[in-house]
């Protein structure tokens, strides 16, 4: 996808470096069972207050199928970010299908906490 093809509603959009960091963390979260895949599951984690942050795919078609998530995130004060590719997001989630939204979830005493906090801060910097 070129810059021009990304839907402007997919905001904030992670750059290549941040995308790699996010997808690596999503993959680790999947191994640690701290990941929910899919827009419906992500919505549930937000409603239950167990989401650390939400990652969405900017090439979801139509994008409107996930655009309720940023609103809910803002409501619940949960960081959210878009990456360019649902295919890459799916791979990071450890599935062979595209994934358009995923939620990294809160876990007591999680070993991923430092990485999670660092990604949350990076996402929040995108929003200023």
TrEMBL record:
It holds the Pfam family Ribosomal_L7Ae. Keywords: mRNA processing, mRNA splicing, Nucleus, Ribonucleoprotein, RNA-binding, Spliceosome. It is found in: Nucleus, Nucleolus. One of its GO terms (molecular function) is box C/D sno(s)RNA binding. One of its GO terms (biological process) is mRNA splicing, via spliceosome. Residues 22-111 form the Ribosomal protein eL8/eL30/eS12/Gadd45 domain. It comes from the Eukaryota. One of its GO terms (cellular component) is spliceosomal complex. PROSITE patterns: RIBOSOMAL_L7AE. Part of the small subunit (SSU) processome, first precursor of the small eukaryotic ribosomal subunit. During the assembly of the SSU processome in the nucleolus, many ribosome biogenesis factors, an RNA chaperone and ribosomal proteins associate with the nascent pre-rRNA and work in concert to generate RNA folding, modifications, rearrangements and cleavage as well as targeted degradation of pre-ribosomal RNA by the RNA exosome. Involved in pre-mRNA splicing as component of the spliceosome. Binds to the 5'-stem-loop of U4 snRNA and thereby contributes to spliceosome assembly. Common component of the spliceosome and rRNA processing machinery. Belongs to the eukaryotic ribosomal protein eL8 family. This is NHP2-like protein 1. It comes from Amphiprion ocellaris.
